[in-house]
Amino acid sequence: MTDAPGIRTTCAYCGVGCGVIVAPDGAGGFAVRGDPDHPANRGRLCSKGAALAETLGLEGRLLAPRIGGRDAVWDAALDLVAGRFGETIAEHGPDAVAFYVSGQLLTEDYYVANKLMKGFIGSANIDSNSRLCMASTVAGHRRAFGTDTVPGTYEDLEEADLVVLVGSNLAWCHPVLYQRLVAAKAARPALRVVTIDPRRTATCELADLHLAIAPGADVALFNRLLAAIADRGAVDEAYAVHLEGMDGAIAAARAETGGTGLPERDIAAFLDLWIGTEKVVTVFSQGVNQSSNGTDKVSAILNCHLATGRIGRPGMGPFSVTGQPNAMGGREVGGLSNMLACHLEIENPDHRHLLRTFWHAPAMPEKPGLKAVEMFRAVAHGRIKALWIIGTNPAATLPDADAVRDAIAGCDFVVVSDLFATTDTARLADVLLPAAGWGEKDGTVTNSDRTISRQRRFLPAPGLARPDWAILSEVGRRMGWPDAFDFASPVEILREHAALSGHAAARGRDFDISDLAALDEAAYDALAPLRWPVSARRTGGRFFADGGFFTPNGKAWMVPVVSRGPATATDDRYPFRLNTGRIRDQWHTMTRSGRAPRLGRHLGEPFLEIHPLDAVRLGIRPAHLVEVESREGRAILRALVTDRVRPGEVFAPMHWTAEHAPAGRVGALVAPVTDPISGQPESKAGAVVLRPYRVAWYGFAVAATDALPATDYAARARVAGGWRMELAGAELPEDWEVFSRAAFRLPSAEAMTVVDRARGIARVALIAEGRVRAALFAGPEPVAVSREHLASQLGDTGREILAGQAAADRPDPGATLCSCLDIGVNTIVVAVLTQDLLTVEAVGAAIGAGTNCGSCRPEIASLLRRCATRVAAE
Ligand SMILES: Nc1nc2c(c(=O)[nH]1)N[C@H]1C(S)=C(S)[C@@H](COP(=O)(O)OP(=O)(O)OC[C@H]3O[C@@H](n4cnc5c(=O)[nH]c(N)nc54)[C@H](O)[C@@H]3O)O[C@H]1N2
Ligand SMILES: Nc1nc2c(c(=O)[nH]1)N[C@H]1C(S)=C(S)[C@@H](COP(=O)(O)OP(=O)(O)OC[C@H]3O[C@@H](n4cnc5c(=O)[nH]c(N)nc54)[C@H](O)[C@@H]3O)O[C@H]1N2
Ligand code: SF4
Ligand SMILES: [Mo]
To answer: What CDD domains does UniProt report for this protein, alphabetically (predicted)?
Structure first.
């Protein structure tokens, strides 16, 4: 290992699972850098990982338990939780309670939650946000392989000759894996990349071929591929001895009639490339999982790899990239309502018996519990009477989010464990429990390629906050099971989990970490990243090169699948297809990433990507506001007019909540329709209607106070000294000064105001103790001031604003592309055009953009292409 000062831990965000080294920065804070020895990233980081240290502040942290909004001591809170759960179970049975947990918990936290619900409360009503994320993959893996096994490793992406990315915006969502792919292609230009995504994403910068597929049509495309594999004699006959169901799957593929929305020429090119390249990896993510036929999409992909025997060998295989840092660990501990620990199966009496004996458990559910969407429906109907939500924000991220919010609000007893009291969900809790967060607790996580890494503590937990495993164990003890929840440290939990995995593996399960069953505290502290399985039976590596599937006869099942369109129909009333997903610099509901000023600069407010033809037809102008309505709800978003989306389709990011943009809650638009097998919601194919949202004024503001004005549209992002805000209102305020003082909660501030009634323009600066505390620019059109410049005026004397040197006169660096070095789009374009820069490297050499973490390099490449076409056109 490289001898580096600092603590080695794992990034808090995505499933790539990068190792980081955290060290004091010499100024009272911390510096985070990539761990050169971690196999996932070898020192690389992305923009979110690089900004981790900016999210560690204590501002807004929940520091003590709260009961009914008042601070309480732990004893009272724990007794209340254990008591209310116990009473509810006694009165209404174990299925009247539920846990809703998260792929962001550590394995040790997750193991205890699952043990408590399944083994001791005796219900399977524990489900996880992984239901919204990985459930279709889990179901697809299980029905093909017999277990939820990811066969390959990250190295396969580098060793492949063809990498196909299906419904994956890898450049933004798994940026370090994307960087590894970029480096592999640079070293070996023969490596081909195909992206399959209705949108032209940043990932498409790397693609030799982009298939802008019709939403939901992946089964049709992969059925075409399977039929062609059969027709062209590309089936691997030797491998076929390990397979069942091939004839049926091929017959279904040949009978496929579903359209793909793709030109035949592109389909032909794709089929030739896939069939003609032995070393092919098909990476898939939410464009596959989050559909009402997500499980079938997974099967359609697996079928092609199974038929050709391209699985489990270097550079070959289907590869599900996981979203959350411990999505895999959660699956391993059985955190979904239809699984048991260690990939044991709830429907299997032998498996249930094993677990019950191992845990000395009083009870064991015999049938699966409620899946996330059903669970919140049961909450709404009063069938779930006590609910504990841990490490997730369902009031924002479940489909039909307004209804979910109301269901939680109406539930008899709601406990929320989080770092913050202000999330959309935490606001609804009867009891709030302060959890220790990243950097404050110890445990393990498993990344997309089965590598288990340690998260290590380098900070004390603030206030009374405790690790989730400790809170759950305390409740277990207080509910009457002192021995089963006698855990004093996370390593004790991991040891138990590891021992159980050995028993499960002896019954033919894949997950086996029994080598860790005797790990002592020191070895746990020093644990280096390792890929499971780790046992006397086998260690690391890939699965299935020689068959050996985890089905009763050891053969994989090829499941026949038929394409189906999205479950929600578009019609005259709701004519647009709504696709939702992620942006580069924010993490889900922004409770952590939203605290880093540099991450708010890339895309600072909720938006809707809409095709220029649709925008013109509907009278939606660039940067104006759009009202988006579905059968479930409504949102107001900024129009981003772009041909990156197909006509008739729109895309909105999932990140904004009532905390940052009350009108921008995209979860409120998503229909609660699910895949019938996996129960995963279809978050990528809603039906909506769009209208220009007409306002009397648009505004941009900065404020040092924590106020979010209650205007018709408001979105805020962190800046160094406070917040920056985009505002709009349907009616003009009578008095801008009165309005501003109230909006920014500065009742006694001195106001400097310039109002031009004829042009409908107003500028207000609010000054207290000689310093600018808030400033507002308003006008009838979207305000074109330099956001960065105005933000830099906070805390200043305001002389510039007074002297009329308005921020509007400054060159605007534009939205930040390079968040590490804070370089805006306009700055890059000017440099490209004036210095004749032709490559991403040249831009880096000239102005530094893209030279640190590299997450913005695909966007710089895209800018370069646009500048080139502009020059060519001139
Ligand atoms: N920056 C950032 N990174 C993240 C996260 C984050 O919040 N922010 N979250 C993490 C998590 S939990 C997850 S699950 C992953 C998700 O990672 P991804 O799955 O890569 O991200 P998404 O943006 O949800 O969706 C991927 C793409 O699917 C496309 N798509 C939509 N419908 C279809 C379809 O029918 N077929 C196909 N082929 N494609 C379709 C969308 O246009 C979108 O570009 O990201 C992880 N990484
Ligand atoms: N429309 C739409 N909706 C989606 C998706 C989509 O693509 N489109 N994607 C879905 C997917 S794939 C996912 S994974 C989900 C994610 O959705 P959520 O899980 O609901 O979102 P997060 O913001 O990650 O919520 C995590 C919460 O846990 C808290 N937290 C952080 N660390 C800890 C800890 O150590 N302990 C505890 N107790 N709490 C902690 C955070 O403050 C935060 O409130 O969203 C899903 N919803
Ligand atoms: S790719 Fe970025 S967000 Fe994901 S684990 Fe690595 S540094 Fe963290
Ligand atoms: Mo996810």
So the answer is: MopB_CT_Nitrate-R-NapA-like, MopB_Nitrate-R-NapA-like
Q: Which atom of ligand 2 is nearest to the CA of 130?
A: 14
**Is 90 exceeded by the pLDDT of residue 726?**
yes
Q: Which ligand is nearest to the CA of 590?
A: 2
- Fill in the amino acid letter for 756: D
Amino acid at 261: G
389 touches 417 (CB < 8 A):
yes
pLDDT of residue 262: 98
Q: What is the pLDDT of residues 224-281, one digit of tens each?
A: 999 999 999 999 999 999 999 999 999 999 999 999 999 999 999 999 999 999 999 9
Residue 31 binned pLDDT confidence (cut-offs 50, 70, 90): very high
Q: Which numbered atom of ligand 1 lies nearest the CA of 289? A: 19
The CA radius of gyration of the chain, in Å to the nearest whole number, is: 27
Residue 49, ligand 3, Cβ within 6 A: yes
The CB of 282 under 6 Å from ligand 2? The reply is: no
In short, whether 169's Cβ falls inside 6 Å of ligand 1 is: yes
DSSP annotation of 121? I
Q: Which atom of ligand 1 is nearest to the CA of 217?
A: 35
Backbone angles phi, psi at 88, to 5 degrees: -65, -40
What pLDDT is stored for residue 323 in this prediction?
97
Q: In whole angstroms, what separates CA 111 from the centre of its chain?
A: 22
Residues 123-141 pLDDT 10s: 999 999 999 999 999 999 9
Residue 367 CB neighbours (<10 A)? 10
The CA-atom distances, in angstroms, between 870 and each of 19, 489, 832, 835 are 41, 61, 12, 15
Res 4: pLDDT: 53
- Distance from chain centroid for Cα 215: 20
The rounded distance, in Å, linking the Cα atoms of 666 and 476 is 36
Task: Give the tens place of pLDDT for each residue, 608-642.
Answer: 999 999 999 999 999 999 999 999 999 999 999 99
* Residue of 689, 671, 688 whose CA lies nearest to 292: 671
Asked if residue 858 has its Cβ within 6 Å of ligand 3, the reply is no
pLDDT 10s digits, 436-468 = 999 999 999 999 999 999 999 999 999 999 999
Candidates 445, 654, 674: which one to mutate for ligand 2, based on the most atoms within 8 Å of Cβ? 654
CA-CA-CA-CA torsion for 178, 183, 186, 188, nearest 10 degrees?
-100
Which ligand sits closest to the CA of 286? Answer: 1
DSSP code at position 681:
B
Q: Which domains can be identified in the chain, with CATH numbers?
A: 7-55 (2.20.25.90), 66-133+326-492 (3.40.50.740), 135-320 (3.40.228.10), 576-692 (2.40.40.20), 697-803 (no CATH), 816-873 (1.10.10)
Determine the Cα–Cα distance for residues 246 and 303; give it in Å rounded to an integer: 8
- Cβ neighbors of 440 (< 8 A, separation 6 or more) are 457, 459, 460, 461, 462, 465, 467
* C-alpha–C-alpha distance, residues 625 and 239, integer Å: 56
Among 14, 203, 295, 319, the mutation site with the greatest number of ligand 1 atoms within 8 A of its Cβ is 14
Decide: 728 in ligand 1 pocket, CB within 6 A.
no
Q: In this structure, which ligand is nearest to the CA of 13?
A: 3
Q: Largest Cα–Cα distance of the chain, in whole Å?
A: 82
Identify residues whose C-beta is under 5 A from ligand 4, the ion: 133, 323
**Confidence at residue 871, expressed as pLDDT on a 0 to 100 scale:** 57
- Single pTM value for the model: 0.95
Burial class (CB in 10 A: 0-12, 13-18, 19+), 871: exposed
Ligand that lies nearest to the alpha carbon of residue 132, given by its number in the listed order: 2
- Strands (DSSP E) contained in 593-739 are 607-610, 625-629, 634-641, 649-653, 686-692, 697-703, 713-719, 722-729
Half-sphere exposure of 85 (CA within 13 A, CB side): 28
